[in-house]
UniProtKB/TrEMBL annotation:
Record Pfam families: Mito_carr (PF00153)
The Solcar repeat ranges on this chain: 3-86, 99-203, 212-299
Residues passing through the membrane, by range: 62-80, 101-122
Primary location group: mitochondrion
Annotated membrane topology: Multi-pass membrane protein
Gene3D superfamilies per record: Mitochondrial carrier domain (1.50.40.10)
A Gene Ontology term for the protein's cellular component: mitochondrial inner membrane
Keywords: Membrane, Mitochondrion, Mitochondrion inner membrane, Repeat, Transmembrane, Transmembrane helix, Transport
Regions annotated as coiled coil: none
Stated name of the protein: Solute carrier family 25 member 48
Subcellular location: Mitochondrion inner membrane
Amino acid sequence: MGSLQLDDFVAGWVGGAAGVIVGHPLDTVKTRLQAGQGYGSTFNCVLTVYRNESAAGFFKGMSFPLVSIAVYNSVVFGVFSNTQRFISQHRYGNSNSSPALMDLALASMATGIVSVGIGGPVDLVKIRLQMQTQTFLEADLDLKHRVTGISIKPAYRGPVDCVGTILRQDGLAGLYRGSSAMILRDIPGYCLYFIPYTFLCGWITPDGCLSPSPFSVWIAGGIAGAISWGTATPMDVVKSRLQADGVYFKKYKGVIDCIYQSYQNNGLKVFFRGFTVNAVRGFPMSAAMFLGYELSLKAIRNQAQTNP
């Protein structure tokens, strides 16, 4: 059981790295749209980022999540798999027993709670780095007395400087800004991530096969990602706004204030900003993540059996 626990964490790290590489460009577009910089549409956001920052703009802040989200994903898959086995062991006397819907839901909720401890600071730094641009619209900074398109020096020189600046200004609590919204996003979000994946994998995999094929994993993971990220969009908007808030100034006091101000300024539609990007991005990113996880897990276990 101990080695299997380590297997899940290592395989989760590989899957996380694969997901970041595939999904980061669209994640940057999603963050810019949700934070409210006046891009309008998804297409306009893509064009603006490319025109102002070239292709490199879509990969801004990628080095930090490539390392940190891989670790974060390691925790997510490790916690989910081990919690699921723990529940199965106590309910059915066999940790490898097929989990029921309630078992998957409990394991998913536990994963959502635990993941915020690492995911909160990771997301915060990633978003702060993604939000650094040379021009900001007047409407977003509310600078009625200044010239539209004012140039502002980037606030952070990189991930380490970003963490140091936040700690100096707001202390350890500053790294967890937006964590309440993240919990409200991730508890239902992981339920709609792991449950569809588990059942879709079982449905697509032919009878008699001991494990799902790479194609089954890719399809099930992609669909689960699109469902999870699409439905998580409203609270993801709130989380992104709270975490992006504070790069140059702060205007939100908390989750409720962010929801209220966002609704007052932009109406109900603001909470679905980035929905298309979330759903589209969720498919390839999650497909790569689950595929990386399952293939690496299989390779690790085969290696362990070959070299006992």
